[in-house]
Amino acid sequence: MALDLVIVEKGSFTMGDTWGDGYDNEKPTHKVMFTYNFYIGKNETTFDEYDTFCEATGRSKPDDQSWGRGSRPVINVSWNDAIAYCNWLSEKEKLPKAYDNAGNLLDSDGSVTIDITKVVGYRLPTEAEWEYAARGGSKTEGYKYAGSDNVDDVAWYDSNSGNKTQEVGKKAPNELGLYDMSGNVYEWCSDWYDTYSSSAQTNPYSSTAGSYRVYRGGCWYSSTTNSRVAHRNNGPTTGTGYGVGFRITRTVP
Question: Which residues in 23-44 are b (16+ Cβ under 10 Å) and which e?
Answer without folding.
Answer: eebbeebbebebeeebbbbbbb
